Amino acid sequence: MDKFLVYASSIIVVGSPIWFYGGIIYLFRKWRHYRELATAASAKTNNTTTSSNNYATSSGESSQESSKKQPPLSQEEIQQSSLDYEKYQRLAKRYCVALITVIVLSVWGPHRSRKVGEFLGVRKWRLWDAWLNYVGYTVLHDKGIESRTPRMNNPQVVDNDNDAILAFVPHGIFPFALAFSCLPQRGYEETWGVFRPVVATATKLFPLVRTFIAWMGGIDASRSAVSSALNLSDAVGIAPGGIAEMFETYPKSGFHRNDEAFRVRNGIFKLALKHNRPIVPIYCFGATKMLRRVQLPAFIENLSRILKISLCLFFGKLGLPIPFRQRLMYVMGKTIYPPLDIESGELDEQAQEMHHRFCDEIMRIFENNKDHYGWGNKSIRLV
């Protein structure tokens, strides 16, 4: 049952741009088809009436000219044309209403609300437990001083830093590390607690994904939206590598299949300084192996960055968008605190200093835990 739920949800959700936009095209074509039929039926009825009048007044014309004129339709045929017109017009209106409804609900709708998600209990759905059972899920806490301790055996949340920004590395083709940490209740209730995920604007192109994210209180990856959430004292989780990190790994030229890479931009640290929030570095082993990517020409990568959309050709099991079964191991590192004295004139320097500390901590917890995961032959680098 778990595999069925995972496979079905993968195809439905990940494939949503195909069937959703394909459905819109289908509705549009059906509307246009019936509109044209209605127009043709209307024209046929009107032409028949005109022809009947002309035919009745053509007695003075020659027989040769009269033979060229088509005789008028019978009363039954005229009535049938009228019925066809009404039927096609009715069907065209139905498809038009369906098309407008789908488009409006995909852009805006009362169903896309955090309160709706709470009402539906979306985080408690059986589907998410099926995903955790499918991939396997372990959380370790590595402070660097004492030995690793299983985080799930300790209900304390992030050393009481409830206002910390949770930074999940790596991003991967799909941010599985971020998704599994905030969706299943079993995933977060004994580890880092409930938080709002920061997601790329491009997720709006995925109708079902966008709805689920809205139900979880997802935050757009713009600086203003994240800043507003931090002003509300909301707990926030983010995959700071973003779309750019997705392309900086194997099979790109210069990378080996045993290379792991991560990229972290300074924006997250500037926000942490602005709102005086600590950052918890979290590395998720296995997140990059759940899907595989086909290397495309370099201009596709550049176009993706410009459009802020991941134009990426990827595949999973059987060539479908079904993730490979991969055990995930989260390792939480030492919390990165902002300096006690935050100077506005030194914001860039202080953000850069936090950036260095964060990257060093990610590398430390990777090297310290890779043997435990079975990745002793792998290496990691900052790109």
TrEMBL record:
Which GO-annotated molecular functions does the record name? diacylglycerol O-acyltransferase activity
What GO biological process, any one, is recorded here? Answer: triglyceride biosynthetic process
Where composition is biased (Low complexity), the residues are 46-74
Q: What class of enzyme is it?
A: transferase
**What InterPro entries does the entry give?**
DAGAT (IPR007130)
This protein's membrane topology, according to the annotation, is:
Multi-pass membrane protein
Family, according to the entry, reads as follows: Belongs to the diacylglycerol acyltransferase family.
Write down the species. Answer: Skeletonema marinoi
Q: What top-level branch of life does the organism fall under?
A: Eukaryota
Q: Where is this region: Disordered?
A: 46-76
Q: Tell me any Pfam family this protein matches.
A: DAGAT
Write out the transmembrane intervals: 6-28, 91-109
Residues annotated as coiled-coil are: none
EC number(s) given by UniProt: 2.3.1.-
Question: Where found, per UniProt?
Answer: Endoplasmic reticulum membrane
Q: Name one GO cellular component term.
A: endoplasmic reticulum membrane
Q: What is this protein called?
A: Acyltransferase
Q: Which PANTHER family match?
A: DIACYLGLYCEROL O-ACYLTRANSFERASE, DIACYLGLYCEROL O-ACYLTRANSFERASE 2
